[in-house]
Fold Response regulator.
Amino acid sequence: MRVLVVDDHPMFREGLTAVVDSLPWATVVGEAGDGDAAVAEALRTRPDVVLMDLQMPGTNGLEATRRLVAQLPGTAVVVLTMVENDEAVAAALRAGARGYLVKGASKQEITRALEAAGHGEVILGAGVGAGVLSRLVTRGDALAPFQQLSEREREVLDLVARGLTNGAIAQQLYLSEKTVRNVVSSILTKLPAATRAEAVARARDAGLGGASA
């Protein structure tokens, strides 16, 4: 199995490479430290599986996954990240990832994920995505982000994650600035998030706010 390792932390990337190379049936054919480099390296090396971090400078892992799945449909992407909330898991699956592991996963978990992804299966690491699986059973739109928010609230959250001020959002959506403030307050309560910055971080983890997040 040909594996591409993508992570912006050199030491973690080195450790992950060592784990993959220790498997008799797998070899690391390339490494990358950001999303753009990941896509370029994947197109050059044509790996069977890409181990992909989500939070990286420049193009993030979600956008890189979307591009890889579109350009190399025969390549499986397994996300390996520090982010473990259900919205991030759902966002990765929407982007086309076939696996989701949290950093700190054991060698056995990584091995199992590589094997599963290589055979076209979808695998979630231990304790990851239980909420997503529950939503899949109960709702057809289970992978839509932030089910607790209304459509208007998700729309406003997306614009907040893009860096727009309340005034700019009000102008774009033809609302009063007071209405936007109230919607943002409702979003913080429902997520829940203590601050606007925390809401932005969670929104971007879930794929809102544009690819450059």
